[in-house]
Amino acid sequence: xxxxxCFNQLxxxxxxxxxxxxxxxxxxxxxxxxxxxxxxxxxxxxxxEWLIHIERDPxxxxxxxxxxxxxxxxxxxxxxxxxxxxxxxxxxxxxxCGGYWLDAGELEKIRxxxxxxxxxxxxxxxxxxxxxxxxLRYIYQMRTGERM
Length: 148
Hints:
Elements: E1 11-15, E2 18-22, E3 30-32, H1 47-51, E4 79-82, E5 90-93, E6 100-102, H2 106-144
């Protein structure tokens, strides 16, 4: 397969149980077949850590404005869209096969965003527990007349 960003040959790379196509020595992008990105998008998923550090050519310049062709589907262009509702990271998705192209650095941004979301959920849940404990304490004090 050819890289949709710099046209180098993609090399198949297996990390753990996941096999993806990477542009090693070129732009450093990664092709994920349908449902593969979900296996590495969170910081707790160790497989994704290796994929952040793909070797690339620092002199190579990629035209991000150019439309890109799907490396798997003949005649199908990738659609640029935001990864999440936070609209921080844009990725390329194939409307034909459901695969994703991530330019160098985008996986790291996605993992950072997912980690931030997880921390916010934990903090929110912890805040709800504190609220619940204070409400219970208040009810206990009201029923028993005790002050704690």
